[in-house]
Amino acid sequence: MPQRCPWAELSSEYRLYHDKEWGVPVHDDRVLFEFLVLEGAQAGLSWRTILGKRENYRLSLAGFEPQAVAAFDSARIETLMQNPGIVRNRRKLVSAVSNARLFLEVQEEFGGFDRYLWRFVDGEPVRHAFKEMSEVPAFTPEAEALSRDLKRRGFSFVGPTICYAFMQAVGMVNDHLVSCFRYSEV
Q1: Is 173 helix (H, G, I), strand (E, B) or coil?
Q2: Of 17, 22, 116, 183, which is the active-site residue?
Q3: Domain containing residue 175: CATH number
Q4: Which domain holds residue 114?
Q5: Is 124 considered catalytic here?
Q6: Which member of 34, 39, 57, 183 is catalytic?
Q7: Is 17 a catalytic residue?
Q8: Closest CA to 112 of 171, 32, 22, 23
Q9: What is the value of pTM for the model shown?
């Protein structure tokens, strides 16, 4: 049986996510938008809760197509507030729509959100070599810089801790423990 990061053994959902997605470098803008929304939705909640609602988010948020989400109006947000399959937090839903509009602006300015984002790690994943989960920080200077820049552009739910979780999820950093079989794979 392969050795995994300890958190991945807490549930089958975590294990699947860990083994297939977490830490894999992402360069697809739609997927980057998906993780930006999901990490913001996760604020104050467990990632397991968000993973359990992920498919409902896909259905409710037009497959995470930023252009479609950017077009949502207040009536659509009210409809989303009635959906028990997602986190019904008005601020987080308004943020998803607002962030979609800003995401499109960043795409326009940089020729893609991917191009904008990966500059914060010089285009290459930061490869840590942590042996224990206690070594993994809540955020890094790169996450703080990303958070500052996103906030300056008007994004919300993008504090340094959320940005670092986002960076881990989309493979901008490799925070698999060195003992984990995924460490060398990603």
Answers
A1: strand
A2: 17
A3: 1.10.340.30
A4: 6-185
A5: no
A6: 39
A7: yes
A8: 32
A9: 0.96
Specify if 109 maps to a domain: yes
> Per residue of the chain (186 residues), what is the pLDDT tens digit?
899 999 999 999 999 999 999 999 999 999 999 999 999 999 999 999 999 999 999 999 999 999 999 999 999 999 999 999 999 999 999 999 999 999 999 999 999 999 999 999 999 999 999 999 999 999 999 999 999 999 999 999 999 999 999 999 999 999 999 999 999 999
Task: Tell me, yes or no, whether 154 lies in a domain.
Answer: yes
Q: Is 22 in the active site?
A: no
Q: Which is the catalytic residue, given 14, 22, 47, 116?
A: 47
41: in domain: yes
Structural domain contains residue 153: yes
Q: Which long-range contacts (CB under 8 A, 24 or more apart) does 138-143 make?
A: 138/164, 139/163, 139/164, 140/164, 140/167, 140/173, 142/167, 142/172, 142/173, 143/167
Domain count, the chain: 1
